[in-house]
Amino acid sequence: MRLAGIDILRGYAVTTVIIYHFYVLLDLSTVASFHYIHALGQLGVSLFFIISGYLIYRSIEHNITQKGIATGIKYYTLHRLLRILPAYYFNLIIVIILAYFIFHTMEGWSFTFILKQIITHLTFTSFLLYQDTGFDINGVYWTLSIEMLWYILAPFLFLYSKTNKTLLILFVLSVIYLICIDLGWMAWLFHLDKHMPNYIGMLYFYSFQLPGQLVYFITGIFIYKNIKHHIRLPHFIYYSLTLLIVLTFIYLSNQTFYQASFTLQNLVILFTMGSLFILLHQYYTKNLFILAWVGKISYSLYLWHMPILYSIKKYLLPYGYTWWIIISIFILSLFILSSLSYYYIESYGFSLRKKLEKRIDT
User: Fold this and answer.
1) Predicted pLDDT of residue 2
2) Could you tell me the pLDDT band of residue 287, with boundaries at 50, 70 and 90?
3) Contact at 8 Å (CB) between 273 and 216?
4) Inter-residue contact 44 to 13 (CB < 8 Å)
5) HEC profile for the chain?
6) Distance set, CA 84 to CA 10, 64, 71, 87, 300 (Å)
7) Would you state the pLDDT for residue 128?
8) What residues contact 136, with CB distance under 8 A and at least 6 apart?
9) 3 state SS for 193-225
10) Taking a C-beta distance cutoff of 8 angstroms, is the pair 266, 171 a contact?
11) pLDDT number for residue 199
12) Neighbours of 104 (CB within 10 A)
């Protein structure tokens, strides 16, 4: 059963990510409003990870309960692969064509390195390449690598961690991992030189790997296991609390203690997004139907927005078009392309999954 409240949260998450990348990729980071856009942009991916923790655990529990362990895992694996792969591989093919023939980002790359890029992206191990992820025009692929690792780990958590104690231990270990990054111990472990120009960037990279992001996935599981009932409140209460949570985060994100620690950054983001998720994941109102629809097609929006932005930067930005024209072209092309991706490619994966599930049952 699809949860409309989670679609609303997905819509919020993908909107913040897209707006943040719009500012960054189109060189608007000096605009006064970027101060707030940057703060909100930190929340989107983390919210996706909490949603994933909740839904993936829910999916595993449903499949195993209904079909048994062996068949349930088959159903789960089939569902995950056909949910992710069709739209991703189609996007990847287009990105490779754009990178090679249009943007020429592969100029100077050896054949071996190009082949390595393609293989790691096909196998969702592109996080190993860090700065070269997405052939330099689609940096969102790194999060899909983390998601795929989570999909592999989640069934083991369900089968071998029946109590909250195990999950709590993993949560604490994830926090300890972030603390180790703050203390500089990761620099020794990963052979990083503190004097290298991109040292802080590399620390960010390691903080965003699965060990540091487990706090979000596990929080999603905690919410699924322990919060079963929806508290009904007037709509204005939901809106007021949502605004209060977001404004509190914006305030905290500008404090010195927040900016000085990877651990505190992630914990503040976790508290913010966890609170927002608890508040809204079972909430739905027709007033937010557009945001719910954006959440429904959020995966395709997420995949396509960066290549479109790079195209705009290359072919529109240098020619002095007004921002209203650029924004209109971006929104129109993004929603047309993402809608086609969802209703033809993602939906093909949904229908293929149903056909293969029938074969499993027989």
Assistant:
1) 67
2) confident
3) yes
4) yes
5) CCCHHHHHHHHHHHHHHHHHHHHHHCCCCCCCCHHHHHHHHHHHHHHHHHHHHHHHHHHHHHHHHHHCHHHHHHHHHHHHHHHHHHHHHHHHHHHHHHHHHHCCCCCCCCHHHHHHHHHHHHCCCHHHHHHHHHHHCCCCHHHHHHHHHHHHHHHHHHHHCCCHHHHHHHHHHHHHHHHHHHCCHHHHHCCCCCCCCCHHHHHHHHHCCHHHHHHHHHHHHHHHHHCCCCCCCCHHHHHHHHHHHHHHHHHHCCCHHHHCCHHHHHHHHHHHHHHHHHHHCCCCCHHHHHHHHHHHCHHHHHHHHHHHHHHHHHHCHHHCCCHHHHHHHHHHHHHHHHHHHHHHHHHHHHHHHHHHHHHHHC
6) 16, 21, 20, 6, 10
7) 67
8) 99, 103, 105
9) CCCCCCHHHHHHHHHCCHHHHHHHHHHHHHHHH
10) no
11) 82
12) 10
Calpha distance 9→47 (Å, rounded): 8
Residue 39 is predicted with a pLDDT of 82
- Is the pLDDT at 81 greater than 60? The verdict is yes
Average pLDDT over residues 295-305: 97
Q: Supply the pLDDT for residue 198.
A: 80
Nearest C-alpha neighbor of 79 from the set 315, 356, 277: 356
Tokens (6 digits) for 359: 């074969």
List, in order, residues 6 or more apart from 213 with CB less than 8 Å away: 46, 49, 146, 174
Average pLDDT over residues 165-185: 92
- The pair of structure tokens assigned to 181 is 């990054």
Other beta carbons less than 10 A from residue 301's beta carbon: 24
Residues 6+ apart with CB under 8 A from 293: 7, 11
Is residue 136 left, alpha or beta, with left meaning phi > 0 and alpha meaning psi from -120 to 50?
A: left
Q: What percent of the chain has pLDDT over 70?
A: 98
User: What would the two tokens of residue 65 be?
Assistant: 């309960």
User: What's the CA angle centered on 36, arms 31 and 41, to 5 degrees?
Assistant: 105
| pLDDT digits 0-9 by tens, 108-127 | 899 998 998 899 999 998 87
Instruction: Please state whether the predicted TM-score (pTM) of the whole model is above 0.85.
Output: yes
Residue 337's identity, in one-letter code, is L
Q: What is the pLDDT of residues 205-249, one digit of tens each?
A: 888 889 999 999 999 999 999 987 777 888 899 999 999 999 999
